[in-house]
Amino acid sequence: MTALRDLRFRTAFLASMVILACLGCGDDTGLAKRYPVSGMVTYKGEPVKNGTINFVPTTADGRPAAGQIENGNYSLTTLAPNDGAIPGKYKVTVMSTEADTTELQAIAKGGQFHHDKAFAKANKTAKVLVPSKYNLPDTSGLEQEVKDQSNKIDIPLPD
To answer: Are 87 and 35 contacting, i.e. CB atoms less than 8 angstroms apart?
Structure first.
């Protein structure tokens, strides 16, 4: 009887260890599996110097993903850095501006924290690097699909 009980204990212990190991391998965020998404954003054939790119889901139950554009290159993040996007269809937005931040940098160097006027000035005088129509999902005209694989999606902005 003791040998049978010992065998059951060992079997139950091993089964619970396998279950715990499997649970530890998964994603505990509660989100669906995300797949890498990266590519190149160009405007009139030239890489966009800097900016942000957003993938906005076309369904209400979707989850957006975003990324920074640097020298035209981007990779998307949904929750954790560069974790990609959930498969599905998206509307895409691109924003790119170049602001003169010398006044803000001088304020920061001086240890001052009140820089609202300088920030507003830098924002107001910022040079828009891509047309503002690309800033909104409903006006960008850009749509892409993320598939359940590694995705290389280039975004050419023609005008």
So the answer is: yes
The CATH number of 37-97+128-157, from 2.60.40, 1.10.10, 3.30.420, 1.20.1270, is: 2.60.40
Question: What is the structure's pLDDT at 141?
Answer: 96
With a cut of 50, list the residues of the chain below it in pLDDT.
1-26
pLDDT at residue 117 in the model:
72
Phi, psi of 49 (to 5 degrees): -60, -50
Could you list the beta-strand ranges (E) of the chain: 37-43, 46-47, 50-57, 65-70, 73-75, 88-95, 97-98, 127-128, 143-146, 151-152, 155-157
* Domain range annotation of the chain: 37-97+128-157
pLDDT value of residue 109:
64
Concatenating the DSSP letter of every residue in 85-96 gives B-SEEEEEEEE-
Number of alpha carbons in the 13 Å side-chain half-sphere of residue 50: 4
pLDDT for the residue 79:
95
The verdict on pTM exceeding 0.85 is: no
